[in-house]
Amino acid sequence: xxxxxxxxxxxxxxxxxxxxxxxxxxxxxxxxxxxxxxxxxxxxxxxxxxxxxxxxxxxxxxxxxxxxxxxxxxxxxxxxxxxxxxxxxxxxxxxxx
Length: 97
Fold this sequence. Notes:
Elements: E1 2-3, E2 9-18, H1 21-32, E3 36-39, E4 42-48, H2 49-62, E5 69-75
């Protein structure tokens, strides 16, 4: 992990979800505040450990855990993740400022 400009360690995060249609917009809008939206149900980017914990707490408030599924993959650095796109890339990755 590397240090972030906001203090603390950052890690590379991929979040994918399979949730009920009526909750998709709320989850997507929430995650767009922190990560890059790269597919219909997938986000990626760098977060601190504290940011990730905050996101997980708030996501639990937005979903029904008995019905919905969210997967969180974490790597200490983006260089440890290989990404291959087959077909078109749905969303160009941008830096969040």
